[in-house]
Amino acid sequence: MAKQTITVIKGDGIGPSIIDSALEILKAAGCDFDYEFVDAGLAALEKTGELLPQETIDTIAKNKITLKGPLTTPVGEGFTSINVTLRKQFGLYANVRPVKSFAGTKARYDDIDIITVRENTQGMYSGAGQVVSADGNEAEAMSVITREGAEKIVTFAYELAVREGRKKVTAVHKANILKSTSGLFLKVAREVAERYPEIESTEMIVDATCMKLVMTPEEFDVIVTTNLFGDILSDLCAGLVGGLGMAPGANIGEDAAIFEAVHGSAPDIAGKNLANPTSVILASIQMLEHLNMGDTAERIRSAVADVIKSGDRTTRDLGGSHGTTDFTQSVIDRL
After folding, report:
1. Domains in the chain, CATH or no CATH each
2. What letters, b where the CB count within 10 A reaches 16 and e where it falls short, cover 125-145?
3. Ranges for the Isopropylmalate dehydrogenase-like domain (predicted)?
4. Smallest Cα–Cα separation from 65: which of 287, 285, 249?
5. Spatial CB neighbours of 194, under 8 Å, sequence gap ≥ 6
6. From the centroid of its chain, how far is CA 231?
7. Which has the closest alpha carbon to 117: 145, 93, 95, 146?
8. pLDDT tens per residue, range 230-256
9. pTM here?
10. CA separation for the pair 20, 284 (Å, rounded)
11. For the residues of 80-131, what is the DSSP string, one character each?
12. Mean pLDDT of the chain
């Protein structure tokens, strides 16, 4: 069987150091991948004058599996978010953000295990109808939801629940106010739910969901929702397990998938060997699961969990005093 080639985008700021950490850990776990390194973000802008060079797009299309560090999109006019561009370009309609408690973090809870499945290309993030009036006093944007888009994402969430032995899917909406867009999403979610009688199906308004996630997070298992709500809720969920440093993300389409750290590029600590690489290590675990390498994924997860629990060479955000390379070595020692 041919070796799996993975496209790697190291990213900006702390990206290169945390990606190197993940690649070393994959190697230590016995993964025999080939890697093709390409640029995006500020690194690409400096070299090529483009945030997302054609070579990068072509390589992602060819290899179909990508591991990426955080990217910086310069703030201001004329720069579209690279993440949004990639999602549209490759039809990465499903954003999967799992959060799981790790003993030893400073999180307020110790038994969280929630997956947020977020529609990735429609809703308020479709970029449709963005207008600002000539006098600058009025702005508008359009939210677009299609039946096909809603059906794809909700079906994806239920299939994930079945595959991972999950018990419950909660469809999150605002159909009481956004009667057209959120209403269509909820209608389709109810239809899809009927096809999966073995899974408990619930629905919840987004504001109530926020409150319940903070008060009784154990009520949730798999959450499925539209783009904007999913963006907010998945960060809230990350907060339940210790922050964005503990949260990976996958962007999955019909024939391509991008696995990433969901936090920013943290330029203030770049190059200082301080960053916690857990988010991108967990993203590489998601990648292994996607490639049907669940056993290897579980070995790495156990090693990371043990390092964090024992406090052996952990980074500052985990209560330790060590850096990226020490943390990485601590995981490798366990593998």
Report:
1. 1-112+242-335 (3.40.718.10), 124-240 (3.40.50.2300)
2. bbeeeeeeeeeeeeeeeebeb
3. 5-331
4. 287
5. none
6. 10
7. 95
8. 999 999 999 999 999 999 999 999 999
9. 0.94
10. 12
11. --HHHHHHHHTT--EEEEEEE--TTS--S-S--EEEEEEE-SSBGGG-TT-E
12. 95
Nearest Cα to Cα of residue 332 among 294, 306, 295, 293 = 306
CA dist 167 → 55, 141, 173, 196, 219 (Å): 42, 37, 20, 11, 11
Residue 254 CB-density burial (10 A; 0-12 exposed, 13-18 middle, 19+ buried):
exposed
**Secondary structure tally for the chain: helices H, strands E:** 11, 12
pLDDT at position 83 is: 87
> Which two tokens mark 131?
């207008």
Give the tokens for residue 25.
């850990």
Determine the Cα–Cα distance for residues 166 and 159; give it in Å rounded to an integer: 10
Compute the distance between CA of residue 81 and CA of residue 72 in angstroms, rounded to an integer: 9
Spatial distance between the Cα atoms of 271 and 262, rounded to a whole number of angstroms? 19
- Quick one: pLDDT at residue 71? 92
Pair of tokens at residue 216: 């009784």
pLDDT digits (tens, 9 = 90+) for 157-208: 999 999 999 999 999 999 999 999 999 999 999 999 999 999 999 999 999 9
Six-digit token string for 105: 């973090």
In sequence order, what DSSP letters do the residues of 171-188 get, joined into one string? EEE-TTTSTTHHHHHHHH
Q: Which helix (H) or strand (E) holds 60?
A: helix 54-63
Q: Give all strands of the β-sheet with 257-261 in edge-to-edge order.
A: 34-38, 5-9, 65-68, 257-261, 248-252, 94-100, 113-119, 222-225, 168-173, 200-205
Burial class (CB in 10 A: 0-12, 13-18, 19+), 93: buried
- Token match 């500052």: residue? 316
161-194 CB burial, b ≥16 within 10 A, e <16: beeeebeebbbbbbbeebeebbbbbbebbeebbe
Q: Which residues contact 316 (CB under 8 A, 6 or more apart)?
A: 274, 276
Q: What H or E segment, with its residue span, contains residue 55?
A: helix 54-63
Could you count the other beta carbons within 10 Å of the beta carbon of residue 110?
A: 11
